[in-house]
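debug: dumping io for the single-chain case to check the tokenizer round-trip. Nothing else runs in this session.
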Amino acid sequence: MASNPLHMEFCGIPMASPIVLLSGCVGFGEEYTRVEGFSNADVGAVVLKGTTGDARLGNPPHRVYETPDGMLNAIGLQNPGVDKVVNEVLPGLDFSETRFFANVSGSTIEEYERVTRRFDDSDIDAIEINISCPNVKEGGVQFGNDPEMSARVVAACRAQTSKPIITKLSPNQTDIQENARLCIEAGTDGFAVINTVMGMAIDSETRRPIIGNVRGGLSGPAIKPIALLKVQQVYEVARGHNIPIIGQGGIITAKDALEFIIAGASAIGVGTALFYDPLVCKKINVGITDYLKRHRLASVAALVGSLTL
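debug: decoded output
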């Protein structure tokens, strides 16, 4: 057995754990560090909040709504803009604790290029391209649901950076495998599978939508079966190209995480679970380590894609 079976590489980046904290759930990497007992050192990487070229105020309230098995959110990419993130946020992050990935969002291909180029000239470890945000009315999911448009965004960003690119795929599309194939041809180094599923909530008394944006992204345990299937489907395309996957969508226990790894994920994303239990990452790490020991597996990599069909 390796001294620490959780140690791994993702897109050539060494990580202390397969856990990745998902964009939008931990702000710009500092929010949960104020919680007693929480440490970024317990995770392999943190994905910063979605960042656009200029500052955005986001959507009108309500922007978050709890559902029986998850959460609807329609924040709308509220952020201070890429220049402020690079100049003021990144210098305050502790890169000795964990890796930090930027999340690049935009309304046009030119904006994706601009934000990617700005992050290329920074200490950020990798760049996640968000082509699948379901709660903005322009760009976002429109790019992610069209495989050819997705590939155009990836190719445009690829030309702006030498850093690893991770493409965040939408579940709200007809053929996620075709999208993955074209994004690989366009130069992506990895995938994040999946983004949230579009949904809505209604107030029966007022007969109006609860979310100010009408629709939002559903996350949490409710979407886990969808996410598992999408990871397995993308893995069928990606494995022949050695393109790793961050599997995400409803992971709240070590058992959930292991299922995603078996389906083909090299790393696993934790997001909504942090709202239930801010210290959940420690528990997931312990559970994965115990499983590897019990099954005499030297590392997480030995389990990736081991699903028997």
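debug: round-trip ok. The domain at 8-302 is CATH 3.20.20.70 (TIM Barrel).
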